[in-house]
Amino acid sequence: MRTINSRKLLVTIVSLVFTFGSFAQTPEESVKETYQAFDTAKTYNQQAPVVNQFKLIATKWPDNWLCNYYAALSIGILSFQEPDSKKKDPMLDEADTYFEKIKTMTSNNEEVNILGSLLAQARISVKSSRYKKYGDMGKAYLDKAKSLNPNSPRIYYMEANSLYYTPKMFGGGADKALPLYEKAADLFAKEQKSDISKPYWGNAQNQQMINLCKSDMQAK
């Protein structure tokens, strides 16, 4: 029993060293390191602990917009994969607490507005009957983002997502979404991916949707 407890204690100490060691970094360094882990995670179970790490970082630096941004973003993205539908809205309520803080720090930032659109789309994914309320909200955020920087690929990725998941009878579908995904792809190719304070998420997901659109169109 002593041996097992000693091993558990050692694992705990090592874990704490790594956790608090990361907090010795700058906020930007901590966020970038954690984002790299989040971006390479493939499943819900892989992403969930990284989301918790983003929350710890936001707790460590509560007045840093970037820390709050990635906490909200990661929760929003994870909510799409949450298998328990009853947990989705509480997750998004939590994401909104971070998002509201960000807006008091920097609202004239296209990426903050794109995040607002993502969280609105996440609400629709929980319950499609919310489409009018959150669809209008998401569009308003993207219009604001476009007025600030029309060259952000995430604007067109989010617009394409909205079209892809809109029923064809209401003007959506793969054929309508594909040109926007392709426009986003062109802008993703030009985007610098070295400064974490200038978010660059979405490229891999955008390419997946291009492939999905083409597959849907070929299946007709």
What does this structure look like?
The longest helix has 21 residues, at 2-22. It is built from ten helices and no strands. With 220 residues, the protein is an all-alpha fold. The protein folds into two domains: 1-106, no CATH class; 110-220, Serine Threonine Protein Phosphatase 5, Tetratricopeptide repeat (Alpha Horseshoe).
Please describe the topology of this protein.
Elements: H1 2-22, H2 27-40, H3 44-60, H4 65-81, H5 85-105, H6 110-126, H7 131-148, H8 153-164, H9 174-190, H10 203-218
Helix pairs in contact: 2-3, 2-4, 3-4, 4-5, 4-6, 5-6, 6-7, 6-8, 7-8, 8-9, 8-10, 9-10
Q: What is the CA-based Rg, rounded?
A: 19 Å
- By CATH, the architecture of the largest domain is named Alpha Horseshoe
How would a crystallographer describe the biggest sheet? none
Distance between the termini: 64 Å
Uncertain regions: pLDDT < 50 for 5+ in a row?
1-23
Structural class, judged by helices and strands? mainly alpha
Number of helices: 10
* CATH homology-level superfamily of the largest domain: Tetratricopeptide repeat domain
CATH topology group of the largest domain: Serine Threonine Protein Phosphatase 5, Tetratricopeptide repeat
Main features:
single chain, 220 residues, mainly alpha, Serine Threonine Protein Phosphatase 5, Tetratricopeptide repeat, 2 domains, disordered N terminus
Gist of the model:
77% of the residues lie in helices and 0% in strands. It is mainly α.
